[in-house]
User: Fold this.
Amino acid sequence: MEKDFEIFLNKKFEKIKLIRQTEKGEVWLANDLSGNFVIFKQINFVGLPYKILKNNPHELWAKIFFCVEDDDKTFVVEEFFSGENLSAKNLTESQAKNFILQLCDGLKILHNLGIVHRDIKPSNLIQQGDKIKLIDFDAARIFSADKSEDTNFLGTKGYAAPEQFGYSQTDARSDIFSLGKTFQKLLGKNLRGDLKKILQKCTELDPANRFQNVDELKFALLQKKSAPYKKNITATLILSAIFIFLFQSQTVEESNVTLHPVDATKSVEKENLSPRSRGEENKNFKFPEIKIPEAPQKNIEVPEKISETPQENIVEKIPEKNYKNYVKVSYFWNGGRVNSWVDKFDYDVTNAAWGVEVNDLNNFQKVGDSFKFPAWKIGVKVENFTANNFLPQIEIIFDDDGRIEKKNLPTSAVGVGAEKDFFIDLSQFKITNPRAAGKNFMSKHNFKIKVTGTGAKIRGTVMTFDFVFRL
Assistant:
């Protein structure tokens, strides 16, 4: 007998074509009532993290529209990702680094939720221009500290870590192993130099010898990228100086030559974390505008053959959000907006975090046995889209490697339709132990910012700024 949720699914979604059918279940390309493509899954086991993914959306993985478990089956309806998977790709070093950094940012959120993907491989990575998407969480599991090994041995031979086959319990390091194997294959002959050494560390057989988390992997990648950037900056400044000198020495009439500033978007990491501001340093830099194609319409013709991962060049348009009757909170690090991806969701996203790596204490002032933060700024923008004045309450919770310090930031009311910026000066906080135990002298310190207030719903109530000290 057909159950209520099956009747609901059959009314709301129309199956178009069977993409894959195995002993694990079925995957269908389907249409919703608006004619948009979705992925419909019937998985022949339960205990998967799709409900957690539904409640914690991220740009790396698909939006989950519907998820229900029934007896020994899981039914999922998720966002359809257009684009090609990487199974037949040969990446350059630059492409690989770009994709790995995106995966690090998304996997950090995933691992903080206690989820291990366990099946990172080329066919589960979808390329959309210079963006990467991670699909197929059917092998994923939720980490449990009281288990010594996995119950189900799932994964793909050649990419799965040794512990996935019963040697021990999988954790974040298992995904790092699979990521390393994946990009070793995708780079092929282009695998060399520092990136080769980094991926070799990812794929160590003993998990203890790998990067212990994606923060460490990201830090290693960014360290290697900083040197050539500085060299390019120096060369550019020298050439610019020569050009200006020669240009000014000419007696002929001026020509229509325009000097362009160095593109700030190419600098991913600054060695000493010099603070960025909204002042003179950034005013000339222009960031590229990203345009997203419109969503597929109902009359789009479905190709006769669909491979394991749909290849249609269709990207769902992110709808504009109407924040009427809401207060919106945005966060900034030294003048630059962080985690703008939360804007695409029309509800409060509470799992957002921003990481900052520190590799020296040159900008820190020593005070006794402690070190005082530089005058770095965390900005909190409050926009009032309600019909009443709104008085925000901003709480700062500083975790100094286990020592908790709480402060309230002075605020004032934000008028109807207005916005206000509030700034947290980090120089008021001290670090008591930046060289915590561990062979790499690595310690973590973070600021959790909480925004509350009465009389309005708030979006952006929580943001965490993680500081990782590697000295």
Remarks:
- Helices lie at 4-12, 50-55, 93-112, 172-187, 193-202, 214-249.
